[in-house]
Specification:
Blueprint (H helix, E strand, L loop, with lengths): L24 H24 L21 H12 L1
Amino acid sequence: MANPPENTGKNWFKYFQYQKGKDSPGNARNILLIVAALVATVTFQASVSPPGGVWQEGRRVGKAIYAADREAFFEFLTFNTL
């Protein structure tokens, strides 16, 4: 793999852009599929195992401990859904 250009100015992102003559559409599609799969995996895992865990006993069994702070839990759900 070629080294990225030494210029660390505003054009660093051009190294990572799709280049019609150099990159094939199949490679670009494969990379997008990998990124989408990783995002979906992280979102699913955060939903299955929420931050702080879940209550194990008592009247709140199975509910997220983090849900006790409604504002913080709402932010977590919003960003996880997005």
